[in-house]
Amino acid sequence: MSNAQPPLNPSPQSVEEFQEVYQHFLGRIADAARAVDRDPNEVRLLPVSKTVPAERLRLAIAAGMTELAENRVQEMAGKATDLADTDVTWCLIGPLQRNKARDAAAFATEFHALDSVRLATALNNRLIDDKVLDVFVQVNTSGEAQKSGVAPEEAAQLLDDLAAFPQLRVRGLMTMAKFSPDEAVVRGSFARLRELRESLTPNLPDGMSVAELSMGMSGDFEWAIAEGATTVRIGRGLFGARPPVGA
User: pTM of this prediction?
Assistant: First the structure.
C-alpha cells in the first residue's frame, strides 16, 4: 500500500539491525506528518510485538523500543514477567475477555480496545492501589461485522458511561481500517474516526479527552497519519513476517 522502499533488513536479529529498522520507520512517520503539515512529534510509533519471543525483544528494547504492544493478554503477561528487569512498558491493543481483566490491569499501562461498560467495570475493579489505566475506546468505523468496537453512533453514550470509572483514564479513540488496496476506502475508515472525535469533543464529560487517535498499521500508517493519527501500531514492519498459525 506504500511506495516507500522496505527496510534493508526486514527481520532484524541484532541491536544494530533493530536500530536501523526503527529509525527507518521513525523517518517514514516524520515524512508522512510533514507531508500534511503536521508536527512529527505529534505521532507516536507503537511497536506491536505479538509472536516475537522475549529474547528477541531484548534486542529491540536495547535499540530504543521501550514501549511494546501485544494483542493477547496472556502473551503480554508472560513477556512482561520475562522482561521485568527492563524499562519496557506494555500496551494491550487486542480484544479482552472480562475474565482476563486481572492480567490486563496488572501489566498494561494502556488498553486500546475498550468497547463496553461491562469490560470497563471488570478492568476498574481489578485496578488496585489507585493505579490508573489509560484507555482508548475502540470504534468500528469500517462497518465490518467481524471487527470489534462500538458503532460510531454508540460512542458518545459509552464515553458518558466511562465517566463513572475513576481508575480508567480515557485518552482517545482507536480503529482498524477495512483491509483494502483502495486508498479511498482505507482512508475513509480513518477519516470517520477523526470526524467522530471532532463531533464528540464539545460534549465530553468533565476532565475527559479523546484527543488521541490510535489508527494505522504497517501497511497503511501513512494514510492514517494523513487523516490525523497520533499513534500508529507497527508490527511486521519492525519485526518481520510472523510465523504461520500452528507453526
Answer: 0.92
